[in-house]
Amino acid sequence: MRCIIARFPFDLTRSGVLESMKGVKPEPVTGESVIVGRRHYPVKQVGAIITRQDRRDFTAAEVTRAMASLGFTVRAVPEAAPVGVVTPLEKASALLGAHAPV
What we know:
With 102 residues, this protein is an alpha+beta fold. The protein is 35% helix and 19% strand. The mean pLDDT is 87.
């Protein structure tokens, strides 16, 4: 399938991407990720390997669109749970000296 990444056309196939990523150790995922085989790779790592370009030359959206069109599962950025947010009930309990629920 012909995909445009960083203003350059690439003829990508699902089997070609699988072959390119074979033996590549996944970096820690901090943003969007692509599942290639049984591994989760950061989108930018996959883009850099399949295009042989610097990661600054393309966007994650370009690679995400290309991988999704080839049938790979693309995961969005995981939403983090709010940490340390005190509810009004917990604040009132703390002021009264009671133990706040955990």
